[in-house]
Amino acid sequence: MTVRRVPIGTVNVDAITEAQVVHRVRDTWQDGGWILTANVDIVRAISRDRDLVQLASTATMTVADGMPLVWAGRIAGEDIPERVTGCSLLFTLTDAAARDGQSVFILGGSPGVPERAAAALQARSPGLRIAGTAAPAVGFDSSPDALQAVIDSVVLAQPNLVLIGMGFPKQELMIRRLRSVLPNAWYIGCGAAIPMASGDSRRAPEAMQRLGLEWLHRLVHEPRRLARRYLRDDLPFAISLLAGAAVRRVLK
Predict the structure, then answer these.
(1) Which CATH number belongs to the domain containing residue 83 in this structure?
(2) 146 domain-assigned
(3) CA-to-CA distance for 68 and 205, rounded, in angstroms?
(4) pTM for the full model?
(5) Which alpha helices (H) appear in the chain, and where do they start and end?
(6) Residue 7 pLDDT > 90
(7) Structural domain count, the chain
């Protein structure tokens, strides 16, 4: 399947639907790969760091996990068919894994969260095989021994799909490490999707998702943690992305 890649800032986003993402993964369980779920915050972070630009370029698929990216593509005349979120892919990919007899490892979240997410996903997709779960302590990646212990636990489990919820870029850096020793698995950095799957947090209503206002839902529920990031950093950057897309359209 040939998919167009649409430049959005310093990231090339695949013009792909969620169904096509799942189909591609199901066709290549044996090959492995990784999915970058790019939103405004992630694109902004990548635009400021050459190492992250290089890291993002190695993704097997990059999906638009944020309506501003979809809008930017459309404004530039490069249609991105839909928003594809890590929160949604967590369910559709684990459902595909259950149907195909593939196993899943859930990595990230507070203690108990990965286990609750695993139970919820198994209830939703009967037959889903959970290869393992882990909730590493904060700062584990700064300790070589703790980091290696996490890597070893995933490799020993030999999963076909690894869900990692640690936030960007920690989860993507972990994916790079794991792919070097377990290359034939599929990986997705899914941020806050694991606690959402476990029921520890709630996703925005569908109407807000369709309008591109999921960020507002999260801001209302976590103002102290997210206000600075969303309002001071991400909102101006999103506006610049849309303006840049308009300029590209005019210059075509």
Answers:
(1) 3.40.50.10700
(2) yes
(3) 18
(4) 0.92
(5) 18-27, 40-47, 50-57, 67-75, 86-100, 113-124, 144-157, 170-181, 193-198, 206-210, 214-221, 223-227, 235-251
(6) yes
(7) 1
